[in-house]
Amino acid sequence: MPLPPDYHMHTLLCRHATGEPAEYAARAMALGLTEIGFSDHSPMRRDDFDDWRMRFDQLDEYVENVRQAQRDFPQLVIRLALEVDYLPGQEEWIRELAGRHPWDYFIGSVHYCSGGWDIDNPKNLGRWREREAFDVWAEYFAWLTKAAESGLFQIIGHADLPKKFGFRPQRDCEPLYERFLSAAAQHRVAIELNTAGLRKDCREIYPSRPILEAAFAKGVPITFGSDAHAPEEVGMNFAEAMHLAHAVGYNEGCHFERLELQREKF
Fold first, then answer.
1. Fold of 12-265
2. Rounded distance between C-alpha atoms, residue 42 and residue 164, angstroms
3. What ranges do the domains of the chain cover?
4. Tens digit of each residue's pLDDT (9 = 90 or more) over 222-247
């Protein structure tokens, strides 16, 4: 069975990954992938916003690196994309980024909650013990819902990222998921099956099976992503992700070209 595209991959420009796009492309070819997409962390207006994304003056370099990989691997479909943080009030900046290059897709991700806390950063792990897990999850999914409603993104990344370190609410989160997935369905935004969760403390694909089941019931499309931060992580655990998708009823995933969604069976 052919592997679906790996649409979530980073490069060394984000300052916490290794490898050039050509190395990721070579690994993809070795695995038998026929399509991939680079979606490194986008810059912010201020380069000192945090230390895990490319600087603004590196954006054109990033694009050229991907274009070079496209030239070097003509037998492999390589998409140009970004993983873009959604924060309320940053919408105009995202629109500005969208107009700078002919992107194939944007992955909209929420990494931050109020107070400037990047909830998946191990350096700030202690802040999880200062707040109720449900309150963090509720705020996170409220922002994720706004991201899905914004019209700025084609894909929503790692939809239940707050589980990364194992901090899970005791209260029912189903209403949070329902609002988010309803927004994704209404605005034809895909969610990704992100296998990086299997490499984190939660030891589970993002999103969990119950969320994916609800997504299928609402007709939300899906993509696949390894969230690779090194060439050897390309396509990692895709067999498990495909099995999960099939188990809940999915038999097709999405491709994007110049922001246009196409579906293909897997």
1. TIM Barrel (3.20.20)
2. 21
3. 12-265
4. 999 999 999 999 999 999 999 999 99
